[in-house]
Amino acid sequence: MSETVYLDNAATSWPKPPETLKAIEHFHTRVGANPGRSGHSLSIDAGRIIMDAREAIAELFGIDELLRIIFTKNATEALNIVISGLIRPGDHVITTSMEHNSVMRPLRAMEPAGAEVSVVPCSASGELDPQDIEHAIRRETRAIIMTHASNVTGTIMPISDIGAIARDRGIIFCVDAAQTAGAVPIHISQQCIDLLAFSGHKSLYGPQGTGGLYIGPGLEKEITPLMMGGTGSRSEFEEQPDFLPDKYESGTPNAPGIAGLGAGVRFVLDTGVETLRKKEIALSRQLINGLSDIQGVRMYGVGDALRQTPVVSFTIDGTSPSEAALILDEDFGIMSRPGLHCAPSAHRTIGTFPEGTIRLSPGFFNTAFEVAYTLEAVAQIASRNVKGVMV
What we know:
The chain is an alpha/beta fold. The protein has 11 helices and 13 strands.
């Protein structure tokens, strides 16, 4: 097979829909102005494009108030806004052992200042029991901050159950939806989500450098901005605006990227999350079933395409993940991601620290033929070790 087989969609989706590329090109060639910074027609057009993107995101997540959607450069920035702006000395925060470093590192940075973090352990397959979260709650618990699905195993967490627990106990519930926004149905009110951090460049099919944060009613009064500066509003004052979204959107936005993100979200809405999910479940199931039949391959996670995102992690006996990924790339043209995936706690949980795993993450634009080709490539690598040949 001469063409590239891209199976790293958990890092960033590729290719992007034509709609995304056209929207970015349209902004650069027909608009180009700074939104909200001028009163001329092109600036107004740019502002309208950004508002259209907010409307699409609001429709996807069941958000009633558009201005509660804050644009960021990625989910990491959104999570940093929440954690650094919300958590105070003496606060207690609950998270899980399957978190990405976008949650873990900001939380650890709060500990020297007097915050306390409880990491609730998940099972070896990355599953979480909601009762374990409930048992970790204390009087001083301020927030539960956790992933919707692991970027290592794809395991989907029971956020509806945990959201209900948080709402009942008066605790702020923040969900990291980097891996699930656009790939799995999300509804803010039905799942009792107070804060939702999402990536724009994965299953929302936007360009890199885009993401966002939904801030629930009243929480803007409690979250200090990560950055301050020009907003195009209240320019006569030297104090940061206290209203949304301006409070958290200082500086010129990535308007071309947001245009592409808006188009990507419209692609998701027009196609349907369930349709996208159905295709990715089929590819995941094919991958899981095929890998399970290969001698010398060990998979991690629940091993059930219905209970995970299209993320499959595995190792090959006798070959390190980095070596296997290099062979897949150089010999077969297959793009994967080896290592710890910026989630060392997750790898400790599933028993793959410090080498990590090989991660394959098919997406909507992959085909069954590409998955079959990948399975044959993995089988060839594994067979070299079975036969005693050093790779």
